[in-house]
Design goal:
Elements (H helix, E strand, L loop, with lengths): L1 E6 L1 E2 L2 E2 L6 H9 L4 E2 L9 H19 L2 E6 L4 H9 L4 E6 L20 H5 L5 H4 L13 E4 L8 H7 L15 E7 L21 H14 L1 E8 L10 H14 L1
Parallel strand pairs: 1-4, 1-5, 5-9, 6-7, 6-8, 8-9
Antiparallel strand pairs: 2-3
Length: about 250
């Protein structure tokens, strides 16, 4: 059984920018997604984000169903991974950006540009330990596809840490895989997912083909769709693509 979760937050703010995306995709899918809420009413980027990761991890772990997570920001994959358990878990990370900065290397200060670094144990160690069930996924169990827009030194750090930057699924020693799709991995000619979308991305068919290849090698443990700002997509093209991906993965 599939269960849909929604984290309608962007940088700790509910319903703004990419925080408006989860319910737009849920509407396209025709599903009621369970909203994940932070523990406190005062919202700030780091505090609220980690509260959402904790709540999502608990909800996913307790449900026992296949989780499809619709999120404003990419960090939801941290909570989803904790919820399904990271033992022998690989990660297939689709994103236009590296998401591998740390507070010391970031040139923007944007937490979402650090979320893969958190997931792999590169930064925010103390806060990550507060997420129920969390243990870092080693970077050599991550396949990062579609990225083309990096902060200085970011791609070099990904490669140095052993992140696979090609679809070499056979080289990954794992049994299960979490599929993370930041929708700006798509080339803008198919629709603009958010203000950060850049040229040179994948097609929807590319993404689905690569997910099918991953499915041949691993059991898919969870799907996260993130970073969709409906205001950048007035015709709803990206919403339809996101729904297509969710249906293809979850059935």
């Amino acid at each position: 059984m599939t269960r849909y979760f929604a984290l309608p937050y962007d940088s700790g703010q509910k319903g703004l920018r990419m925080g408006a995306g989860p319910f737009r995709i849920a509407r396209e899918l025709g599903v009621d997604a369970e909203e994940i809420e932070p523990a406190t009413e005062f919202h700030s980027e780091i505090q609220t984000s980690f509260q959402l990761y904790r709540a999502l991890a608990e909800r996913v772990a307790s449900s026992g169903d296949f989780p499809v997570v619709l999120s404003g920001n990419c960090g939801a994959s941290i909570g989803a991974a904790a919820g399904v358990g990271t033992e022998r878990l690989a990660v297939l990370w689709f994103d236009a950006h590296g998401d591998y900065n740390t507070p010391d290397t970031s040139d923007s200060g944007f937490l979402d540009g650090m979320c893969l670094a958190v997931l792999t144990g590169r930064c925010f160690h103390t806060l990550a330990k507060t997420i129920p069930g969390f243990a870092p996924v080693p970077p050599w169990r991550v396949i990062h596809l579609g990225s083309r827009d990096y902060s200085p030194g970011e791609r070099e750090a990904l490669v140095a840490d052993g992140v696979t930057m090609t679809p070499d699924f056979d080289s990954i020693e794992a049994d299960r895989i979490l599929v993370h799709v930041d929708l700006d991995v798509l080339d803008p000619r198919f629709g603009r997912a958010n203000p950060y979308a850049v040229d040179g991305g994948l097609s929807p068919d590319d993404v689905l083909h690569l997910i099918d290849r991953a499915r041949e090698r691993f059991e898919i443990a969870a799907l996260v769709l993130a970073s969709y700002d409906p205001s950048c997509d007035p015709e709803g093209k990206i919403a339809a693509i996101g729904a297509r991906i969710a249906r293809a993965v979850a059935g």
